[in-house]
Backbone:
């Protein structure tokens, strides 16, 4: 497949799952628009992909914690005259701790990043995709959206929004050739837990952390197959399935125990 004329836009593309997804697109000869906050990291990533895969890589440095930033990303793409064939909403962060003690301003930023940026970019690019009757969107959600998350209440709530939102707009656009896929990873070996001050949590310190490359591969393959949703990892599939039959209060209590600080 020669995708040399096609562009994929990926947010949070300089590390973790976003970086691994960008690599998969580049390997498949997609040109890239990569978005992140740190201009230096963006340029390093862009240079690497240009050299290794011979694709065009455009960089957009924007802080998606800011409400105006996703609009600025869209305007920058328009100014470059680029048609986005695939949108990957990936950038996301969390905050660890009891809700009554955590920083509300940080949480409002997380809501902006995890929800606001997804909604703006999805609306802007989905309108174009529907108008030309082609395109793909990958929404990186989380199994956290399927489960109540004590000590990560806002993060889990934002991911519940992403999954529900994705299911709704998929239904609205089902008569078109646009496909919208949700990727639901579990605990993954990325910088997420450092940024969330969560490295001491039992599920992070003692549990299995998935390889971001394998999570990205699951998402990429599901996206290319036009699937609705993929839960990455067998044990995550099991956890979600079990949570659907156990009362929510018991699921929350179990997750609360897993999220508490490790004693090891």
Residues:
């Amino acid at each position: 497949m020669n995708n040399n004329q096609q562009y994929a836009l990926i947010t949070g593309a300089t590390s973790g799952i976003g970086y691994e997804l960008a690599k998969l697109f580049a390997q498949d000869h997609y040109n890239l628009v990569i978005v992140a906050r740190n201009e230096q990291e963006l340029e390093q990533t862009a240079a690497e992909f240009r050299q290794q895969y011979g694709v065009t890589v455009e960089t957009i440095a924007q802080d998606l914690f800011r409400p105006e930033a996703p609009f600025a990303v869209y305007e920058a793409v328009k100014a470059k005259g680029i048609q986005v064939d695939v949108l990957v909403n990936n950038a996301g962060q969390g905050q660890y701790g009891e809700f009554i003690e955590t920083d509300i301003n940080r949480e409002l930023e997380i809501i902006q990043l995890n929800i606001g940026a997804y909604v703006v970019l999805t609306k802007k690019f989905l309108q174009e995709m529907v108008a030309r009757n082609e395109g793909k969107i990958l929404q990186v959600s989380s199994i956290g959206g399927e489960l109540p998350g004590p000590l990560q209440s806002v993060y889990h709530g934002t991911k519940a929004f992403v999954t529900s939102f994705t299911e709704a707009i998929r239904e609205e656009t089902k008569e078109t050739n646009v496909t919208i896929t949700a990727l639901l990873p579990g605990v993954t070996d990325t910088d997420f837990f450092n940024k969330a001050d969560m490295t001491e949590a039992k599920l992070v310190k003692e549990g299995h952390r998935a390889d971001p490359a394998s999570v990205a591969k699951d998402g990429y393959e599901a996206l290319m197959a036009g699937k609705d949703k993929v839960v990455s990892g067998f044990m995550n599939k099991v956890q979600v399935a079990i949570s659907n039959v156990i009362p929510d209060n018991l699921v929350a209590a179990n997750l609360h125990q897993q999220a508490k600080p490790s004693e090891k």
